[in-house]
């Protein structure tokens, strides 16, 4: 992976991460507060699912 691809991917992540708080700040707060109530194991499972989904998408696209 080139440095340009890395920085492009990072920029895209930042844009996507900023969309929800920009469009619906109250909904983002509600969702974040619900995440704060989850146990560590539940958060880790959610993180693992996100990682696997991202890797699967990279495999399909690439």
Low-confidence stretches: none
Shape: flat
- How would a crystallographer describe the biggest sheet? none
Query: Termini, distance in Å?
Result: 12 Å
| Element order: H for helix, E for strand | HHH
Strand content: under 5%
Structural class call reads mainly alpha
How many individual helices? 3
Q: Considering DSSP H and I runs of 4 or more, what fraction of the residues is helical? A: over 70%
Mean pLDDT: 92
Number of strands: 0
Cα-based radius of gyration, to the nearest Å: 15 Å
Overview of the structural elements:
With 62 residues, the chain is mainly α. It is built from three helices and no strands. The mean pLDDT is 92.
Name the features:
single chain, 62 residues, mainly alpha, 89% helix
Describe, in short, the structure shown.
This protein has helices at residues 3-23, 25-36, 40-61. With 62 residues, it is mainly alpha-helical.
Question: What's the topology here?
Answer:
Blueprint: H1 3-23, H2 25-36, H3 40-61
């Amino acid at each position: 992976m080139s440095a340009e691809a890395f920085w492009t991917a990072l920029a895209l992540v930042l844009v996507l991460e900023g969309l929800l708080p920009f469009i619906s700040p109250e909904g983002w707060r509600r969702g974040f507060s619900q995440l704060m109530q989850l146990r560590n194991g539940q958060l880790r499972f959610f993180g693992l699912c996100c990682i696997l989904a991202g890797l699967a998408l990279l495999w399909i696209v690439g």
